[in-house]
Amino acid sequence: MTPADSKKGFVLALGGGGGRGLAHLGVLQALEENQLRPSAIVGTSIGALFGAMYALTLDATRLRKRIEEFLNTETFTHLDLPLLVEAETEDHTWLGKLTAAARESVLYARAATRTSLTEPDAVLDIVQTLCENKNFNDVQIPLYITTVGFPAGEIEIFSKGDLARAVAASMAIPGVFAPVKIGDESFVDGGLACELPAKEAKKVAGKGNLVVAIDVGARPRPNIEPDTVVGMLDWSMRIKSYYLRQYKAEFADILVEPIPGFRQWSDFSHPDEEIERGHEATLERIPELLRLMNS
Q1: Pairing assessment for the beta strands 185-189 and 143-150 based on DSSP bridges
Q2: Shortest CA distance to 31 belongs to which of 3, 67, 64?
Q3: Does position 91 have pLDDT exceeding 60, yes or no?
């Protein structure tokens, strides 16, 4: 990896978190409102997508509008992202329960016969559309995308070549999306190894550059005990993820943590709320960021 521009500034580390990652749009808006632009962006999973889209346009308002429009398209609504629960439904009628149970049985059938729940190129098609088939040569600030090699499991960071494939690989959650081919190798979700890529951002930050890390990862519900096997698996993943992010956060000079939400990664149903979480949390940290940049 080549260090970012050595003039004083900051590298933005955008973490993974699925729907909670919509908060990144609010982060970018808050920075833009204060005439603050990162020297480089390191992105993981949903952070890789939004980081790439911003690096291509340097326009947070345009980025937010594009994502809000996309969330209402058939392409997204038909993606059918799975919720990690057992037949969860707010409709407690017999028909509601039957419908939810039937949906879960389809997911379990897919899980038993395939390596991914969605179509093989689902995530790549989405990224190519949102990034308009552009490449790393088209970005206006340095961009680094984290992935994990499959099946070796080593972290791989892309900063040149096929932008869409790198971003799609960083978003390819194992079991949900198929591994993405880049050259002769396959890669999956960067969040497996660096859900909060602050350490990776530190490596590319030039002399005088700070690291501003945005943590939108999952947190355990403090007052709710899971009562199913699936619930226990979800809880254990949240705990492991939480402590791994704490370790990575030590490499950040500024850590932005939007107000914790307990929505699952596949829940994109409240974009305005998530975006505002990121906006407010970033505004609170901007005075400290300016102080450190000017010290």
Answers
A1: antiparallel
A2: 64
A3: no
Token pair 């689902």 is at which residue? Answer: 122
For residue 96, pLDDT over 90 is answered with no
Q: Output the six-digit token pair for 54.
A: 């911003």
The two tokens of residue 144 are 């680094």
pLDDT per residue as tens digits for the range 56-80: 999 999 999 999 999 888 777 666 5
Task: Give the predicted TM-score (pTM) of the model.
Answer: 0.84
Burial class (CB in 10 A: 0-12, 13-18, 19+), 14: buried
User: H helices of the chain, where?
Assistant: 23-33, 46-57, 60-70, 74-77, 94-113, 122-130, 163-171, 191-194, 198-204, 229-249, 271-294
Helices (H), 45-115: 46-57, 60-70, 74-77, 94-113
DSSP three-state, residue 220: coil
- Find tokens 């505004």 and name the residue: 283
Sign, Cα dihedral of 107, 110, 114, 119: negative
Whole-Å CA distances, 222 to 59, 165, 211, 235, 239: 37, 37, 30, 11, 11
- Buried b / exposed e over 162-200, threshold 16 CB at 10 Å, is bbbbbbbbbbbbebbbbbbebeeebbbbbbbbbbbbbbb
- Those residues with Cβ within 8 angstroms of residue 55's Cβ, 6 or more apart along the chain or in another chain: 41, 139, 140, 141, 142, 143
Burial of residue 72, with CB atoms counted within 10 A of its CB: 0-12 exposed, 13-18 middle, 19 or more buried: exposed
Element spanning 258, H or E: none
Give the chain's radius of gyration (CA, Å): 19
CA distance 286 to 196: 20
Tell me which residue has tokens 């407690």. Answer: 92
Amino acid at 184: D
